[in-house]
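Question: Now follow the chain.
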Amino acid sequence: MPDESAVDTVFVLVHGAWHSSAQWAATQRALAARGAASTAVDLPGHGFDAPLPTGYLLPGQPGLAEEESALAGLTMDDCAASLVTALREVRRWPRVVLVAHSAGGGPASLAAELAPDLVDRLVYLSAFVPAGRPRFADYVAAAENADALGAGLHVGDPSHLGAARINPASPDPEYVELLRRTHYGDVPAAEFDRWRLALSPDLPTAIPRTPVALTEQRWGGIPRSFVRLGADRALTPAAQDLMVAEADAAMPRNPFTVHHLPGSHTPFATRPRELAATLLSALD
């Protein structure tokens, strides 16, 4: 049955690091079943057009740890501008809800700061909130995130590569298991290949490292919600709580409403119906 709160609402869904619009598909179906429209956006350098290191799909993956990323020159401004364009395309809807997952919180926050008239509500799904500390890397390195997994996933030197590179196509079962536990802990190991092989290897270093400046008058004037993931091993619950608390202290005009989901960093993989219901509850 359609949800009355979804009437006249469109969700703009922004993926996180190494992901794409494709991972939102089941959540979009669940939203549609509840009467909500949605569009999922590929950030620049992601999705089916994401450039791959030349040896990534070759036997032995030659040069994977040394080859500079084709995304090295991509900026936070480029990513935010692509979202502003997507938001303009759906502004005819009476209510536009911008949803960001994980590292997508940086570009989404900057887009909202640049064009607050295009966003009626912000929803952060275990996503970076720059209001307290301006760089995602600042929270990743925080003491509250010390129990996170994933440090062993990076390939090569990001400063040289111009990207935080991972290896979703790795033949190493220990590496694959670490990737699963970090990002897809609720997905059984036997079913994980379909998810990991849909990831792209490069995240431009601009996304975790570029400071995002927000203001009370623009970003701070937009109602905001945070979906807290209780067993997240990529961005721990303590780190999520820290971002919310620091954002509310810095910009108290519209404090976060916090919603809770159990499980790991990627609920769109295992509980899309619950995620859709939570996104709709954030409208209240």
About this structure: The chain has one domain: 4-281. Residues 4-281 form a domain with the Rossmann fold fold (CATH 3.40.50.1820). The chain has eleven helices and eight strands. The CA atoms of residues 22 and 47 lie 7 Å apart.
